[in-house]
Amino acid sequence: MQFVYYCTQKIGGFAPSPRITGQITGVSQNLDWSFQPGLDRKDQQASSDDPNSQSPRKSTKMTMPKRRAIPILMLAVLTAIFAAVSAQAGENRRVVVELFTSQGCSSCPPADALLRELAKRDDVVALALHVDYWDYIGWKDSFASPDFTARQKAYAYASGNHMVYTPQMVIGGQHQVIGTKEMKVADLIATHRVQPPEVVLAVTRQDGRLRISAQAPDPVEGPLLVQVVRYIPDATVEVRRGENAGRRLPYSNIVTDWDIAGNWDTAAPLALELPIEGENPVVVLLQHAGHGPIAAVAELK
């Protein structure tokens, strides 16, 4: 018999969807642009049995990059590219694995190690999202953001759960599993790999511009949320307090930015361009609204 330990927290005061505080229109007929700088409702904090003060950490903010539509003449070229890509899409489909973790969680290092191995696979896009709800127990996670906590709670809400925990993995935006369950994670990745793709996505980066193109061979129910993610490939942290005090912990694919680019209704091909800074990897996700399944993903390292 094997006992699995993980840390849980009850959800309280959670708004299932962020408030949209602004809107951009007139960029493209098949895009419903919305500005979403972050979540305007604070998460309820759990009470502490052993509180310790920490210096403030730098939080990650969800921002709206400037964008412009790609000239229509490019669509003919993109259509030809999509025709070639679609023939191989089933063989090359990649699966998004999101790990919700924390430097202050003693159960998380094995899951962090598993994500590090998954990041080496060609058929997986591995993303580590550090949550902030364990900061109060003695060590403030230097990579944590309340936006990532809100994303995890939104997944819980969408699936009818009332608890969040670390380490947790979400596979393909759809299946949730304890982040140390290696065989279960492998089985879920295999399940998502053989699912037929809903849309074909192509992403390029050149001269400080990111170009995103997509089309749906068949109608897709509901809009898809266009998201742009940046991450740091590797980092090591010396934890001085809390449950992991004295440990030197390596991390991989640490998410730093999660930008909302807009909603695509899939009625017409998607073609947009936006500025991109820095050399860190870029991930573009097309996900069903309401924290549903991820329809397509592209990664530029």
What is the gist of this entry?
This protein has 301 residues and is an alpha+beta fold. It has four helices and 15 strands. A five-stranded antiparallel beta sheet has the order 2-12-11-14-15, with helices on one face. A four-stranded antiparallel beta sheet has the order 3-13-10-9, with helices on one face. A four-stranded mixed beta sheet has the order 5-4-7-8, sandwiched between helices.
The helicity comes to: 10-25%
| Share of β-strand residues | 25-35%
Quick one: how many beta strands?
15
Order of helices and strands: EEEHEHEHEEEHEEEEEEE
Strand order, main sheet: write it out: 2-12-11-14-15
By secondary-structure content and strand pairing, the structural class works out as alpha+beta
Could you give the distance between the termini?
41 Å
Largest sheet: 5 strands, antiparallel
Number of domains: 1
- Extract low-pLDDT stretches: 1-5, 13-69, 84-90
Mean of residue pLDDT? 80
Radius of gyration: 19 Å
| General shape | globular
**Count of runs of 4 or more consecutive helical residues:** 4
Secondary structure layout:
Elements: E1 7-10, E2 31-32, E3 68-69, H1 74-92, E4 95-101, H2 109-118, E5 124-130, H3 146-158, E6 163-166, E7 168-171, E8 175-178, H4 182-193, E9 200-206, E10 209-215, E11 224-238, E12 248-264, E13 270-275, E14 282-288, E15 294-300
Parallel strand pairs: 4-5
Antiparallel strand pairs: 1-6, 2-12, 3-13, 4-7, 7-8, 9-10, 10-13, 11-12, 11-14, 14-15
